[in-house]
Write a structure and sequence with these properties.
By secondary structure, this protein is α+β, with helices and mostly antiparallel strands. 26% of the residues lie in helices and 16% in strands.
Amino acid sequence: MPLATVFADRPGTWMTVGEMPGVTVDLAREVTDPARRELDMVFTFEHMGLDQAPGGTKWDLAPLRLPDLKANLTAWQEGLADTGWNSLYWDNHDQPRVVSRWGDDGEHRVRSAKALATVLHLHRGTPYVYQGEELAMANVGYTSIDQLRDVESLNFFAHAVAEGADPEQVMAGIRAMGRDNARTPMQWDASQHAGFTTGSPWIEANPDHVEVNAAAQVDDPASVYHHYRRLIALRHDDPVVVHGDFTMLAPEHPALYAFTRTLEDVTLLVVANFSRAELALDHADLPDLADAPLVLGNYDSEVEPGTALRPWEARVLRSASSGSAVPSAS
């Protein structure tokens, strides 16, 4: 079981983390029980298989059902509410880019990346930001096996084609789920090889680095990069984000991701639209939003939020009695 030590949300605290494929909530509670002095947190993997066809492999794609994702993450939020601690992540070195996987890396790339980040970072646990996730780095869109370096993808292609599979269908699975999507050079700027090296990288940079890169986002306050900074500032400044209770709302809604975080008399309501269509905020599970101040959103701040969520819009709202300070990312 791979182990790591990471700096935790709680100041001055280090945590020992275990990577445990197949771990259940019950086992996670057991090994993270402070009385046992084993682990502080485990990396869970269940949500990484929710877009696979039943009984299939990672290459057998199926559309993600948002209720399934909400149910899975809720089970972990509730299961580790009093013992243990959650790991929060979308991306890592073994997974495709989340903005391509569960977001919209076309017209709504920036907004969907911010929405996904908002939802994840407002859960209870320690959020992990994988390199380039804070820029909305996307899948490459590989078209040829010659572009790949990952042995898992190369072996899968060779075996499947030898068994008679259509090479293009095999490439479609690799294009969506291949690990090379997460292993391209970090996109620092628009120069050759994305500013990662003046030599020859082990794998070519994503061609979109000429537009999606750190240099282009650092000075843009509306960028994905600065949205991540605001989320991190909120977590540092507001104890409810770290310690508040979690309650999922509208669990069966196919496009609305909504939940509350509550600590004493402070409540944050998080609502996000996981679709390209406008979404009315009229679900019976939702509290009255009329007087709830906006803490953080992913649309321009000068646009007054209405009673409907725009495509891939996410909002963090504070109950009117709790006050409303928008964190600074400067």
